[in-house]
Amino acid sequence: MSFGATDQARNEGVSLSDYQVRAAGFEGYSALVRELGGDPDSLLRQAGIKPAWLENPDHPIPYLAFLSALRLGSQATATPHFGLLLSRKQRFSMLGAVGFAVREAPNVHAAIENLNRFLPVHNQAARTALVVEGDFARWSFDVMLREAPALDQQFDLVAGIGISLLQHLAGNDWAPLSVHLKRAEPVDTRPYRQLFHSPITFNADFTGLVFHKKVLTKPVANADQQLFRILHQYLTQLEARAPSDFGSLVRETVALSLQDGDSSIDTVASRLGLSERTLQRRLHATGLNYKDILADVRRSVAQQYLRDTGIPLTRIATILGYSDLAAFSRSFHREFGVSPRNWRQVNLG
User: Fold this and answer.
1) What are phi and psi of 71, to 5 degrees?
2) What is the mean pLDDT of residues 308-331?
């Protein structure tokens, strides 16, 4: 397998710079920066954001600017766990109609599945996925990987929000069996242990929560079924208005499938509700092919793991589907002109 992809495949579809997040995603940002001794308006402007934009929760903000604001907040206040602290200041209503639909779902499983489906209405670059295996469930988060900068603050933020959301749905005494963060382990892990009260894995293969599947059947207290149906219909209409990019959708699914350890074309087609033949036909109609998409996604995933985590190279090779480290190293060297080890040393975030 090779990282190489055609220029057409790399340039096809939506760039990360095109994705947007609702201004509500900044809830608590200015207050937190001030508490930590910083100037939030200055940081927002450095990130390319006009502070006045945040007055309207539905104002679209470039996702790259959002990530930049998180990074600047952490650096300016010398707070490595800035995203974790920000998660404590974000209410359920921050998600807008998506959050309200989740809150009114009949049970935890329906709530999570609705968030998985409609999260792009709030944040176009974000994706969540629920996988149930045996007695355990894994709820994971990721972003579109093309051009993605370091995501440590984003991963911290979403893990904290995920804990709060599930405690709201399943009860305040709920806690995951384990928390996983696809980021390097910070020097001081106490803030993470104090918040999560669960075993934490840094340098993980995914960012998300693992818990017993029985919580999925738990009814959501005080949920309004009529309001849920109204909100679901409204979000379905919003979803239908969103521009469709089949190539990007396939890339998202490939990235999630890599995370689950099987990026074969039949698995990806199944996750999209298509036959393998239909998937190939639709890709061909847009000038794409599965081999190039897989190579492109693996390239981006490899860079993210090498830059943002300390995961051993042998493990990265396995995640990406290579037979062994040597095969991964050869493919990486063909693409970048250096070994994965040397690339990591130069680019480590």
Assistant:
1) -65, -45
2) 88
Residue type, 44: L
Specify the long-range contacts of residues 261-268, CB closer than 8 Å, at least 24 apart.
Answer: 261/319, 263/294, 263/297, 263/298, 263/321, 265/290
Report the DSSP beta bridge partners of residue 159: none
Q: Tell me the β-bridge partners of 179.
A: 200, 209
* Token pair in block for residue 217: 């059947």
Whether the full predicted model's pTM is greater than 0.90, yes or no, is no
The residues that bridge with 141 in the sheet, in sequence order, are 128, 207
- Please identify which residue in the block is written with the tokens 């469930």: 137
pLDDT at 13 over 50: no
Residues 6+ apart with CB under 8 A from 289: 9, 280, 283
Comparing CA positions, the residue from 324, 328, 337, 342 lying closest to residue 295 is 328
Q: What is the dihedral of CA 338, 339, 340, 341, to 10 degrees?
A: -110
What residue ranges define each of the domains in the chain, with the CATH number in brackets?
Answer: 16-217 (3.90.1520), 244-347 (1.10.10.60)
> Hunting for tokens 């207290």 — which residue is that?
221
For residue 293, the tally of other CB atoms under 10 A from its CB is 25
Q: Which residues contact 46 (CB under 8 A, 6 or more apart)?
A: 68, 72
Q: How far apart are CA 196 and CA 150, in angstroms?
A: 22
Whether the per-residue pLDDT at 149 is higher than 80: the answer is: no
| Residue appearing with tokens 């095969």 | 327
- For the chain, the residue count is 349
